[in-house]
Amino acid sequence: MNNTRILLLGMSLAAAGNALAAAQDAAPTPPKVLAIAREWVKPGKGGMVHDKSEAGFVAASSRAKLQGHYVALNAMSGKQRALYIFRYPSFEAWEQDNKIIDKNPALAAEFDRLLMADGELLENADLSVFTYNEEWSFHTHPDLSHARYYDISSFHIRPGHRKEFNECVKIVKEANEKGGTAAHWGAYELAYGGEGGTVIALTHRESLSEIDKDFAESKKFAEAIGGEEGMQKLDEVCGQGSDSSHTELFSINPKQSYAEDAWIKSDPDFWKPKSKAPDAAASKPAPGTTAPKPTTR
């Protein structure tokens, strides 16, 4: 997907009009397809050991110029695990990446080798595929250039109650809009790899202080929704629409991410920090190292 920044051009009215159209085409847009790989890392096999194992996937993906850029997340809550969120503009783009690998035996062999090495560090792994739902999203921020954290909420729509789930989301969005909160999220519905009716809402953050702000703005949200009576109605509607919800917090790991060029250009110190010369004592490579992975795995 194209994450180039909007160009501000305008020497004449006509030129400005053309520039605006071009800028709209180039502006970051939410990816239509997310493939989310989860890895449960064995105790003691995370940290630098996993970073080194994943680094090879990033290097191989970059050399092959795969479209499926991905952001790597490390869990800050729940069981120790890593998530890799592959971002595609379409299923066709995902297929094109697969063809690049299939047509290059050396590249395919390299990914196989990396997968085998990384598998030694894992207890389990799986892959789920989600599609973007614009109606359920709110003030999406698709540019991850300065993102540092993610919180991911998952919901399961109660069978036969999609209408109530829609109403729940509508009430929440309207209250945030009216209250002028800083809330924002992208909503995706599960297409493959899990229980039907699963929905996730992703919010990336530049700082954990944004979470403090969210809690501080809860009063504004409650007032906008109609106080205690409005909150009670929200609980009833949302309870009718979904039968479970869950939220987890993650930190972004740039060492394991196959970052888009725009992110790197905007914040190179985070996404591609300059490597320091290793200490003599640390020069010996750790066992089981080498490299991130395409969703073809």
How would you describe the overall organization of this protein?
By secondary structure, the chain is an alpha+beta fold. The chain is 40% helix and 23% strand. The protein has ten helices and eight strands. Helix 5 crosses helix 7, helix 5 packs antiparallel against helix 8 and helix 7 packs across helix 8. It starts with 12 loop residues before the first helix and ends in a 26-residue tail after the last helix.
Q: What is the tally of helical segments?
A: 10
Shape: globular
Enumerate the spans where pLDDT stays under 50 for 5 or more consecutive residues.
Answer: 1-25, 280-292
- Give the class from helix and strand content and strand pairing: alpha+beta
Strand residues, percent? 15-25%
**Distance between the terminal alpha carbons, to the nearest Å?**
21 Å
| Major sheet strand order | 1-3-2-8-5-7-6-4
Helix percent reads 25-40%
CATH class of the domain at 137-249: Alpha Beta
Q: For the residues shown, what is the average pLDDT?
A: 86
CATH topology of the domain at 137-249: Alpha-Beta Plaits
The number of strands is 8
Helix-strand blueprint:
Elements: H1 13-26, E1 33-41, H2 47-64, E2 70-75, E3 82-88, H3 91-102, H4 105-119, E4 122-132, E5 149-157, H5 162-179, E6 186-192, E7 198-205, H6 209-216, H7 218-225, H8 227-241, E8 242-252, H9 261-266, H10 268-271
Antiparallel strand pairs: 1-3, 1-4, 2-3, 2-8, 4-6, 5-7, 5-8, 6-7
Helix pairs in contact: 2-4, 5-7, 5-8, 7-8
Task: Please provide a brief summary of the model.
The chain is an alpha+beta fold. It is built from ten helices and eight strands.
